[in-house]
Inverse folding.
């Protein structure tokens, strides 16, 4: 059985993959084979558990635990420059048509940035959707969910197709029931205590009190 934090992580990743609708791909959740050409038109999303901790201020030492989970969501896109090659190579094209084609030439920087922001918008839409408040888990199991801290990496200055990456984080709390056997406790516990103390004159008694106490548990 997986730790509840791991189960919640897997559920969140599966939710993104199920609702991606071709806008991005999720590593490890490919429903069908894709060609290299189709992959270059979509961002690839990789997820991992960046950190996990038990918040003991909200948890009992021997009771239900509340995990604080921070999931890293990393984007990677690859796009080439785009140009109207057909117009540029067509001998019948006019100078004006060729000039227009050249003015519409885009760089890898522009293409990768556009693809990256589209994928980020799609992931944000899924994770911020009110219908996905608990990431597909039972009501009340997920709390304080937030998706933010998007940071784009620098664009490579050289190379063929442009490659651009960015990282963001999904944070939430998830509750986990206490595991293990609590054992069997007898209905009655008898304690026979012999206490040694001093009287009012501060003279130590050998035995100041001896008795039997019965505590009934439910």
């Amino acid at each position: 059985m997986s730790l509840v934090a791991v189960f919640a992580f897997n559920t969140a990743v599966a939710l993104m993959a199920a609702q991606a609708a071709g806008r991005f791909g999720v590593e490890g959740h490919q429903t069908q084979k894709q060609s290299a050409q189709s992959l270059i038109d979509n961002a690839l999303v990789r997820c991992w558990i960046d950190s996990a901790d038990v918040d003991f201020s909200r948890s009992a030492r021997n009771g239900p635990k509340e995990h604080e989970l921070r999931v890293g969501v990393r984007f990677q896109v690859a796009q080439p420059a785009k140009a109207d090659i057909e117009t540029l190579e067509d001998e019948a094209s006019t100078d004006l048509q060729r000039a227009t084609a050249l003015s519409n030439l885009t760089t890898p920087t522009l293409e990768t940035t556009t693809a990256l922001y589209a994928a980020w918008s799609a992931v944000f839409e899924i994770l911020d959707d009110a219908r996905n408040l608990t990431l597909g888990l039972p009501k009340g199991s997920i709390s304080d969910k937030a998706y933010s801290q998007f940071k784009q990496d620098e664009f490579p200055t050289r190379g063929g197709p442009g490659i651009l990456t960015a990282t963001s984080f999904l944070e939430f709390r998830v509750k986990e029931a206490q595991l293990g056997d609590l054992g069997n406790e007898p209905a009655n516990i008898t304690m026979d205590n012999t206490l040694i103390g001093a009287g009012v004159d501060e003279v130590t008694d050998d035995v100041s009190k001896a008795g039997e106490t019965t505590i009934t548990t439910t």
Remarks:
- The mean pLDDT is 74.
